[in-house]
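User: Second chain of the day. Same drill as before.
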Amino acid sequence: MTKIKYLLIFIILLSTSLLYSQDQRKTLDTSKKNQNILFDKKTNTLDIHFNGFAFLDDHEYDALIPLRKTISGTRTEFDLGLNVDSLNHFVFGTNALHEFGGVPYFVRVDPVIYYSYTSKHLLFNAGEFPRNQLLDYPRSLLNDTVQYFRPNVQGLLLRVNTSMGYETGWIDWWSRQTPTERNIFMAGEIGKFIPFPNHVLYLSHYFLFQHNAGSKSDTAGNIRDSGGAQFRLGLNLSHKTVFDSLKIEAGAMGTEYRERSVYGFRLSEGFIASFFISYHKVALFDEFYKGDPNFLTFSDPFYSKPIYNRLDFIYTAFLGKHFKGQFILGLHQSPGRLTDSQPGFKVVYDFGRKVLARFSDN
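Assistant: Same format as last time:
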């Protein structure tokens, strides 16, 4: 019954977004990141896409000693796309992870197989598709290390763009129930509402739910449910000052979690605020949290503390048409630990979709 209930909620969210989009007559003028047209508008073509990133992310902070680790490696995605027309696309490929020093060489290879419907106002994906640029959650709800070990969504996603913002609903099956594996899925919704187009003021929201049930051989195992939500009021002052980018956000965060037959839902509430500022090759990002400890399975573990601040110093060492390299130094301040740091480096490359062959309508 619980699964059906959340599935109905998911369908209602998507239906509401779709009806809302039908009343709009203008396209959304946002950054390239928020556009949903990922393919060239060419009919009957076969194209190739190659992209990935290399990363070094040092988590050697003392505030969370059991979680100490250094994450480093490369992610490489290669796929072929069959473009039936300007709206309908089929994509087949792989996304492979190599951790430096790991054996075998590719410790994990994820398939990329999905159907995509893309139009001016609508994006619909079904299958195994990259989450990058589609699901941009705060670390307090979904840790950014997910991109290293689980870069794809396995499920469905619907995104609606309008002149007043966008809404995205999705569901992702992490694990299918077997005699040894647990049944795990996640679902959520994110969106941004811009009440006055081209104005600095906006409202953003994030919802996330996770269901973790037992395996077939452990049907008596406790079922764990957890979820979180954030509502933020933001100001986008980019290009209105001497800075290239300047964004300020503040709002409320709430989470719930339970272990069935052990305890009911436990609620956590708190205040969260952030700002991002960049000028040429240098940027700063700061996020502050104050409230109840949170215990979401895939959130950044620092948000299990009642007060926490993170300050990132970002330097873009090189930037080209198809690649970007950045040094990032994260400074963590939490009770009893004010000097924890997290240095890292990341190179991202994407050569876009290149047409290999064209076919006639016949």
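The helical segments are 2-21, 146-149.

User: Great, on to the next one.
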